[in-house]
Write a structure and sequence with these properties.
By secondary structure, the chain is α+β, with helices and mostly antiparallel strands. Helix content is about 20%, strand content about 35%. It has eleven helices and 39 strands. The strands form nine sheets. Strands 32-33-35-34-36-37-38-39 form an eight-stranded mixed β-sheet, sandwiched between helices. Strands 3, 4, 5, 6 and 7 form a five-stranded antiparallel β-sheet that branches. Strands 8-9-10-11 form a four-stranded antiparallel β-sheet. Helix 2 crosses helix 4 and helix 2 crosses helix 11. Pfam families: Peptidase_S9 (PF00326), Peptidase_S9_N (PF02897). Its EC number is 3.4.21.26. This is prolyl oligopeptidase. It comes from Streptosporangium lutulentum.
């Protein structure tokens, strides 16, 4: 097909010298979404996209199949408060998952339906937390994908909103005191009290009394601390112990404090240091047996659980209960104590596959394992706050929509507690576990999903993320299943920078080591080609957010290796990324241009700065979201303009710029449209025919 001309985009002769290095930025004008020139350019890009995507075959087929597979709906594990439970469920016809409660008499009712709050589908339920008695509910909603959560309170029995909105509560934990009369939460300072451009930072921990004005909230913690800090807060079930954690941005480490609220007032807690200025992450759990359990990667990059007395919470008093495993990564735990021999359930991932072991609660000795439905992903182990012999956990794999499983420690049996509500016909697929060597010899694992019996080279999508310690685990995906059912292969590489092998694996792909992540992806592509799964002319790569940075670097470093790219919500201008969205919270992962050595890391791979005129680049589709307040769409706008200018072949470079959508949650219908466009584009440029 013949590509229409690209929209004109002026190239400014803008060069800045940073640490003695000239850095050009010809499309900086695209950083201003309100500039008429930017608006005109975006309008022209939308027309080009419509013409190009509209001319491709197969979109209706992908859209129909994705829609059908998403009719599975979803289900979440229950949160218990006495005999009342709370859980999320999405039925086949619903655009968003709904929060339900089951009353003590067994009556189930919808408590929060985003579509009832806003029939346009643009409102999302971001977080929720019932009080310790299950009588009140704190919940947070945002509109249009901006994730600017406002906090409200609801009377659970009547479903009435009793407080709110409280604004500036993005990413705020809520920690209730017993009785439901007050809670701790995190809120940003007003924009009038912070420097220009720093509205997204400067968080503080407050104590709020239900029924009182927020003007009366008591500042508890955070004054004078690092502006990019995120805070966690928790209160033990009996209300005695308060914990507060602080992390600088997304750093894989935290400081931690503890206060005894029986010895100091909740409004002025006497906080003692548990961990400070230590390069490790730790969290506290107050056991019903009076012990303090510490979940930490301190001296244990794959994780361990220690115990101590809450009155002596410091490191020197920790005693190993569950030591680090040499292969598996500790991910979760729960305590079941209504037994003759109380136990602790430990969730692990081994090469990103979940398992649960059973341990004696006192000695930590392994005494068994929890049966799981298959080789998949466990989404958290839930116990009753007051204790018991039962636990619930979410489970999914490549062909299983989300389910909730119930484990009975008295019988040792796992049973299906709740399935996703929609009945769908899931295609038969096979999953092969591969290992390969990266450029420096490191062994990397990869899952390759295909149609059973298919042999020979076929169109393949290679997906990766490689950052922030996030693991690529198996899960139900309508997009993946639709692609594989059509005859393609889908490969998921467990790159360095992720958490599949613990914190050392993460750090092997961050800061000065970021190039390892890109090398791991290139090596995955070469392995897929060498083993006959695909060819370079049939291979696509896909990634979003940090994964968008990954594929952006890949297409500039090895353009000959890939036929097509989908680059979604990406970071691409790594010289100026700290100036926009939440970028300043990520310099602990990537580095900062303020420091010469870290600038050198960033400049060495920044995709926008490595686009070269006259190169034959892969067919590339950028998908971005105008309301994205995490990663500003300007990254893709600038990179798109640069690639369109530089492209020497007739393979298209297109921009899908979606309004009233953001980085995270969205309505199902929006998900379907986006996925259909992405798969249609990749299918055409890798030769997949449905």
């Amino acid at each position: 097909m013949t590509l229409q001309p690209y929209p004109p985009a002026s190239r400014d002769d803008l060069v800045e010298e940073l640490h003695g290095i000239p850095v050009s930025d010809p499309y900086r004008w695209l950083e201003d979404p309100d500039d008429p020139a930017t608006k005109d350019w975006l309008t022209a890009q939308e027309k080009l996209l419509s013409a190009e995507i509209g001319a491709l075959p197969g979109r209706d087929g992908f859209k129909s199949r994705i829609t059908e597979l998403l009719r599975s709906g979803s289900i979440g594990a229950p949160v218990w408060r006495g005999e009342r439970q709370f859980f999320m469920r999405r039925t086949p016809e619903q655009e968003h998952a709904v929060l339900y409660t089951v009353d003590p008499d067994g009556t189930e009712r919808a408590l929060l339906d985003p579509m009832a709050l806003d029939p346009t589908g643009l409102t999302t339920l971001d977080a929720w937390q019932p009080d310790k008695e299950g009588r009140l509910l704190a919940y947070q909603v945002s509109v249009g994908g901006d994730e600017e959560s406002s906090l409200y309170l609801m009377d659970v029995a009547y479903g009435d909103r009793i407080e709110g909105p409280i604004d500036r509560c993005r990413y705020s934990p809520v920690a209730w005191l017993p009785g439901g009369e007050a809670f701790y939460y995190v809120r940003r300072l007003p924009s009038t009290e912070v420097p220009d451009g720093e509205d997204q930072f400067h968080r503080r921990v407050y104590l709020h009394k239900v029924g009182a004005s927020t003007e009366e909230d008591v500042l508890i913690f955070g004054d004078g601390m690092e502006k990019t800090n995120y805070y966690g807060v928790g209160v033990s079930r009996d209300g005695r112990w308060l914990q507060i954690s602080a992390s600088r941005g997304t750093a894989p480490r935290n400081d931690l404090w503890l206060a005894d609220l029986s010895a100091s007032a909740p409004s002025s807690p006497d906080l003692v240091v548990v961990q400070e200025d230590v390069d490790a992450q730790s969290g506290l759990y107050f056991g019903r047996d009076g012990r303090l359990y510490v979940f930490t990667d301190r001296d244990a990059p794959r994780g361990r659980i220690c115990v101590t007395d809450p009155s002596t919470p410091q490191f020197e008093n920790w005693r190993d209960l569950i030591p680090q495993d040499p292969e598996a990564v500790l991910s979760d735990f729960a305590i079941l104590d209504d037994l003759d021999r109380p136990v602790m359930l430990i969730g692990w991932t081994r090469h990103a596959i979940s398992e649960i072991s059973v341990h004696d609660l006192v000695a930590g000795e392994r005494v068994g394992e929890v049966p799981t439905p298959g080789l998949g992903t466990i989404g958290g182990i839930v116990e009753r706050p007051e204790g018991g012999h039962e636990a619930w956990f979410g489970y999914t794999d490549n062909t299983t929509p989300p389910t909730v499983q119930r484990y009975d420690a008295r019988t040792g049996e796992t049973t299906l507690w709740a399935a996703s509500p929609g009945a769908v016909e899931v295609p038969d697929v096979s999953t092969e576990r591969m290992t390969y060597r990266s450029a420096d010899g490191s062994e990397i694992h990869m899952l390759v999903i295909s149609k059973p019996g298919v042999e020979g080279a076929r169109p393949t999508i290679l997906y990766g993320y490689g950052g922030f310690g996030i693991s690529m685990t198996p899960g139900y995906s309508a997009s993946i299943l639709s692609w594989v059912e059509a005859g393609g292969a889908y490969a998921i590489a467990q790159l360095r920078g992720g958490g599949e092998q613990g914190e050392e694996w993460h750090r092997a792909g961050m800061l000065a080591n970021k190039q390892n992540v890109f090398d791991d992806l290139h090596a995955a592509a070469e392995h897929l080609i060498a083993t006959g799964v695909t060819t370079a002319s049939q291979l696509a790569i896909s990634g979003g957010s940090n994964g968008g940075l990954l594929v952006g670097a890949a297409l500039t470093q090895r353009p000959e290796l890939y036929a097509a790219v989908v680059c979604s919500a990406p970071l691409l201008d790594m010289i100026r990324y700290e100036l926009f969205g939440l970028g300043a919270t990520w310099n602990v992962e990537y580095g900062t241009v303020e420091k010469p050595d870290e600038f050198a890391w960033l400049h060495a791979y920044s995709p926008y700065h490595h686009v070269r005129e006259g190169v034959s680049y892969p067919a590339t589709l950028f998908t971005v979201f105008q309301s994205d307040t995490r990663v500003h769409p300007l990254h893709a706008w600038k990179m798109c303009a640069a690639l369109q200018y530089a492209q020497s072949s007739d393979r298209p470079v297109l921009l899908r710029n979606e309004t009233e959508a953001g980085h995270g949650a969205r309505a199902v219908s929006k998900t379907i449209e986006l996925a259909a466009d992405q798969l249609t584009f990749l299918a055409y440029h890798t030769g997949l025919t449905q």
